[in-house]
Specification:
The structure is a single chain. By secondary structure, the chain is of the alpha/beta class. It has one domain: Glycerol-3-phosphate (1)-acyltransferase (3-Layer(aba) Sandwich), CATH 3.40.1130.10. The protein is built from 12 helices and 7 strands. A 7-stranded mixed sheet has the order 1-7-6-2-5-3-4, sandwiched between helices.
């Protein structure tokens, strides 16, 4: 049992998923999960709704989990909601890893986090995240980048989540941590509201190919974030006022009203991914005498094929239910 390992070594090791080889040591993450889960159950009486939307991908596909960001506790609850059977590999601000003489970096790295440079295109982090997704791991991203209503920054949506999902051939799964913003409000003492974590339905990057190429990633992330706010506010997606939430950002409301995005379920997307992986492995074994060939299209293409077949048979309709 190693007490200390180099950060970079852990960032490049698998954690969960289906990749072979040595994984990030689990003991620290398991201890932290057990401690925080028990403590937060008492303090916040938290529950997780629709967790099956995440569980469907376990062992079958990678997935990018995104959420709106209202509290410093969002990451903790996102982590707890996935455990014990899945781990979330969070992209964390690079400067966090050197806090407390590196102790924070050890803790973050052992629970699966890895650094990203803010304000620039960090190709190393993107490649890491894509590799994790191809290993059927879970990557967690907060596209707003910073907590809402904290400081002077104007809220904006960063399209990195869709880019990482595209690179890793993975779906995006919206979620929310409801009521966490009431734990600590400016000028008030700590409170302990009941917290609810809720997962939505997956979003596929390929469904946005009707947009101009330069708008696809932005439009996809915008749509996924609208799903997060619909979950948070408990309203249909069409009732989320994205113009008010992101006053300086581009608005796609009318675009998606005119061109509804197909609805998917996690079970459908995961099953399509598993079927394509099995077919690819069988094809590779037949062609190479037993050596499996990695899939290039990934889960997004597989799910797209499955949805097209279902639509042709009248079994799938666009739009779907509101959150």
């Amino acid at each position: 049992m190693s007490l200390f390992l180099p950060y970079k070594e852990m960032w490049d090791m698998p954690l969960g998923g289906t990749a072979p080889g040595k994984q990030v040591p689990h003991w620290a993450g398991n201890f932290l999960w057990a401690f925080l889960s028990a403590l937060f159950k008492v303090l916040f009486r938290y529950r997780v709704d629709c967790r099956e939307s995440l569980r469907a991908f376990d062992g079958k596909s990678g997935v990018v989990v995104v959420a709106n960001h209202t509290s410093f506790l969002d990451v903790a609850f996102m982590y707890l909601a996935a455990r014990p059977s899945q781990w979330v590999r969070f992209m964390g601000r690079e400067s966090l890893f050197d806090n407390a003489h590196g102790l924070v970096g050890q803790i973050l790295s052992r629970v699966g986090a890895f650094p990203v440079k803010r304000g620039e295109a960090d190709r190393t982090s993107i490649k890491r995240a894509a590799r994790m997704l191809k290993n059927n791991e879970v990557v967690g991203i907060l596209p707003e980048g910073t907590r809402r209503n904290k400081g002077s920054l104007v809220p904006e949506i960063h399209s990195g989540a869709a880019f990482v999902a595209k690179m890793g051939h993975a779906p995006i799964l919206p979620m929310t941590v409801r009521n966490a913003e009431y734990v600590k409000q400016k000028g008030k003492f700590f409170r302990f509201p009941k917290i609810t974590i809720e997962y939505g339905d997956p979003v596929l990057v390929g469904d946005f190919d009707f947009l101009p190429k330069e708008d696809r990633l932005e439009g996809c992330t915008w749509y996924a974030m609208r799903e997060c706010f619909a979950l948070s506010q408990r309203v249909p997606r069409e009732q989320v006022d994205m113009r008010a939430l992101f006053p300086n950002g581009r608005d796609f409301t009318e675009t998606f009203a005119a061109h509804p995005i197909p609805a998917h379920t996690s079970a459908e997307v995961a099953a399509a991914a598993a079927a394509k992986a099995a077919a690819t492995e069988a094809g590779g074994a037949a062609a190479g005498g037993g050596a499996a060939v990695p899939a290039e299209g990934g889960v997004a293409d597989a799910a797209g094929d499955a949805v097209s077949s279902a639509a042709a048979g009248g079994a799938h309709a666009p739009g779907g239910e509101g959150a």
